[in-house]
Amino acid sequence: MLTLLSMFYYICLRRRSRSGTRGEALTSRRAVESGQRAVLPVSVEVEQYAKEVLDFSSHYGSENSMSYTMWNLAGVPNVYPSSGDFTQTAVFRTYGTWWEQCASAPLPFRRTPKGFYSKDYIELGFEEPVYPTAVEVFETYYPGAIVQILACSHNPFTQNPPTDVRWEVLWSGEPTKVLTPQARQFSPKIKHIGFPTNLLRLEVNSSLLDYYTELDAVILRGVKERPMLALYKMPIIDISDLSDSEEELSDVGGPFRQGDGKHQRTGNGYFDKLPYELIQLILSHLTLPDLCRLAQSCKLLHQHCCDPLQYTQLSLQPYWARLSDASLGHLQSRCTLLQRLNLSWTGNRGALTLMGFSSFMKACGPSLVCLEMSCCHFLNEACLEVISQTCPGLQELNLSSCDRLPPQAFTHISKLTRLRRLVLYRTKIEQTAILSILTFCIELRHLNLGSCVRIEDYDVVASMLATRCRLLCSLDLWRCRNLTDRGLTELVSGCRMLEELDLGWCPTLQSSTGCFQHLARSLPRLRKLFLTANRTVCDSDIEELAASCPCLRHLDILGTRSVSAASLKKLLQSCPQLVLLDVSFCSQIDMRIVQELSGLFPNVAIKKSFTQ
Description:
The protein is α/β, with parallel strands linked by helices. The chain has three domains: 44-228, Galactose-binding domain-like (Jelly Rolls, Sandwich); 284-444, Leucine-rich repeat, LRR (right-handed beta-alpha superhelix); 457-611, Ribonuclease Inhibitor (Leucine-rich repeat, LRR (right-handed beta-alpha superhelix), Alpha-Beta Horseshoe), CATH 3.80.10.10. The protein has helices spanning 2-17, 22-34, 276-283, 288-294, 299-305, 325-332, 354-364, 381-390, 431-440, 458-468, 485-494, 515-522, 539-548, 565-574, 591-600; strands at 46-49, 52-56, 90-91, 120-141, 146-152, 167-172, 184-186, 197-204, 214-223, 313-315, 340-342, 370-372, 396-398, 421-423, 446-448, 474-476, 500-502, 528-530, 554-556, 580-582, 605-607. Strands 10-11-12-13-14-15-16-17-18-19-20-21 form a twelve-stranded parallel beta sheet, with helices on one face. Strands 1, 2, 3, 4, 5, 6, 7, 8 and 9 form a nine-stranded antiparallel beta sheet that branches. Helix 8 (381-390) links the parallel strand 12 (370-372) and strand 13 (396-398). The chain is globular. It starts with a helix and ends in a 5-residue tail after the last strand.
């Protein structure tokens, strides 16, 4: 009996050795003999809330306050276990898919991996580095947006420059739509990592949610000493899997054999007989890492995988954690025909340098028409100068949340005279630079100046837009603090092609001046209008929109006190394309009215947030 058991163990271990090392096999045997997984004593678990918010991609709030800002995610919970819309929580800028349907939205990039869902992120620093055992996120409104949690090896509070920065995924999943908007404590099962961390990154995708997700606090649990676990856990072995025949390793090239059974030299089989264009089409469905791996398989596929026509579009955002100067150097020779490049989120903490970026841009810049660089904190004035010199045909530039760029750097953008889309959300651009840009970039169609708090006088900017950029289709002035009715009137009189206008949280605009009615009469093509948190919007404004803007699709009048159900009903009847209407915190519109209007107009998503 003992002999039979010994032979059984021997067969198991030999079978395992084909895919594992000798050390793993020995560990497997010990695991089988002991019948359990060995775990050594672990030190006491530490629980800590986030000490500081280090970086984020967007937020609903202002740069000069705490309401709805990402900074609310530091420290203990402010709201939990309550549910609802609270200003003390962290809220990202968008939700749902409506914003992707707007004319101002960029085209999606090809070859984006199917498993990459992230749209926004936030990075949090904690007091003490620990080996994570759990991460808990307090979601207080419309949960389900978190799709990935990562840990970093770098201590953000050390004075030493970052070296050999590593990111490990603790947990990842698909975006979900939770059936209820009620608060919850989200604590997914996380992976154990081999280094201590006090820097976490949450990535979110709110596309399935019916309203803004709100986060209240994050807990990191962990131990200071590395837990010592057995290296391998013995899998269940099926008795039919114990074949030890060498026939398993026999040649699998049967389809290319001749009738006499002898092997013939067939090169690449029939693959190289396919038309070049067809092979290129097949390879166009591969992700970038797969394309690079395939290039190492044979000369034929190397030629196809390195063809610049495979790299007319390149999104490196999904690989932000691994991208370096060496990565760009490796891709450089393949990108001579590159037209659209997405470097968003890349290069932070020393991963990309001016030298590596400059070399790459000199190779691919001449043909580039679109450059996405949101949250690229390695950018400096010299980098923007390189872009202005190497990309003469650039039409789209996104510098969203590049909030560490110095104000003087933005003057180089004025040299990109063919720009049609420019996103400067949450940057430090100042008035002199934006006026210079508008002077020379007269082909602008889409401009985002949301949360650009350093612009001193938006009336002057509006006047310049009306004079120089008459073909403007979309304009985002979210949270600009000093636009008056005079500037708005001049703007809509000069830019009559506007289809999207975001005036959310612009407190200096007053309905009593007639500016909103003049806006409606001047912009018959209007499809999106945000008047968020403007308390003065009234029935006459809504009725003028109903009469003059039949193409309206998105309207946000959150917080108004003077709009009645009757005017909203008239608007819904007159604007058949309307799909989104936000009436949250409108004092005359209660849930009963919302339910009644939703029943009459089922194709319109009427939003009404609550607190509990």
